[in-house]
Design brief:
- The chain is α+β, with helices and mostly antiparallel strands.
- It is built from 10 helices and 8 strands.
- It has helices at 104-108, 129-142, 153-167, 178-197, 204-211, 215-226, 230-248, 253-259, 265-276, 280-294; strands at residues 18-25, 31-35, 40-54, 57-62, 66-69, 75-79, 85-92, 123-124.
- Strands 1, 2, 3, 4, 5, 6, 7 and 8 form an 8-stranded antiparallel beta sheet that branches.
- Strand 3 (40-54) and strand 4 (57-62) form a beta hairpin.
- Helix 2 runs antiparallel to helix 3.
- The longest helix is centred in the middle third of the chain and has 20 residues, at 178-197.
- It is globular, with a radius of gyration of 20 Å.
């Protein structure tokens, strides 16, 4: 959790920047908070329903829906009510396809997919024409065993080139303005600040000062860019860290609450129950029971 804002980890290897992950919510994780990374990411659901937010736009996704996330764009994954969801993430750096950034394909196609990209379709819904072209290719990639990636490097590249062939016209006319670019820079600064200071009291005024905006303009900007209020995001981030510690440590609920920025234990328990539908102690017991049953 503490490393999931600006992801610095390599997805795949430096010489082979391609990776596929599988997620199950809430069985494996409660959700994936706002973060960003340099790789292009494609997510498709294999079961259930859930929310995926990209640059402040929140999409309700179902089985076989696809989400397209260009490099450096802020995004998150969250549970819908009591629903379960399962999905695959496919991440790759464009250098995997074209090592030379001055090559024809890099300049004509891949450089269009940047932090400033505005895609015609972020949410590629099941049954749409584009979905029917992409989904078989994505499923084919997922079927390749992880330990056989290098052996199947040419096949993987071929499939990704096919994917990008179908996406090459998805970048709309540039709509980036200095103000919208500045908003994204400000947002990332605030998210990183929260990551470093979540354990202490953070006032809206302090966060607003980082962006050189008034508190009211800051709160409007934050909600526009993330889809949630600043205080809601801050508490949600703290709750995710607390839930992780409940499962991975023997610290008391009180200690975990205080160390993660909650000054009032009753308030922490109330928010925790609202988010996870369990008290902290119940969450810990259920998590340990799940691990024991898996063993």
């Amino acid at each position: 959790m503490k490393q999931t804002l600006r992801e610095l980890k390599e997805h795949g290897k430096k010489s082979f920047p391609f990776a596929i992950y599988q997620g199950r919510i809430p069985e494996w994780l409660s959700g994936y908070p706002l973060h960003w990374h340099r790789e292009f990411e494609i997510i498709f659901l294999t079961y259930g329903t859930g929310y995926i937010t990209v640059q402040g736009e929140k999409f309700l996704c179902q089985k076989d829906d696809i989400i397209l996330i260009p490099p450096e764009q802020v995004h998150s994954i969250a549970r819908k009510d009591e629903d379960f969801m399962a999905y695959h993430n496919i991440l790759f750096d464009f250098s995997f396809l074209e090592e030379n950034p001055e090559s024809f394909c890099s300049r004509a196609f891949f450089q269009n997919f940047s932090e400033n990209s505005k895609l015609k379709e972020i949410h590629v819904e099941k049954g749409s024409e584009l979905n029917q072209k992409l989904l078989p290719l994505l499923k084919n990639l997922v079927d390749i065993p992880h330990d056989c990636y290098e052996e199947n490097a040419l096949l993987i590249k071929a499939r990704l080139f096919e994917v990008m062939h179908h996406l090459k016209n998805q970048v709309g006319a540039p709509n980036e303005t200095p103000s919208s670019y500045e908003k994204r820079i400000r947002l990332k600064k605030v998210l990183s600040f929260i990551q470093e200071n979540f354990s202490r009291n953070i006032a809206v005024e302090e966060a607003a000062k980082l962006t050189n905006l008034s508190p009211s303009r800051f709160m409007k900007m934050f909600k526009e860019q993330t889809g949630m209020a600043f205080i809601q995001y801050l508490n949600d981030y703290r709750l995710e860290l607390s839930a992780e510690e409940l499962l991975q440590s023997t610290k008391s609920v009180t200690q975990i609450a205080f160390e993660n920025g909650f000054e009032n234990l009753s308030y922490f328990i109330s928010l925790f129950r609202r988010k996870f539908a369990l008290s902290p102690n119940e969450y810990r017991k259920q998590g340990k029971s799940r691990v024991e049953s898996d063993d």
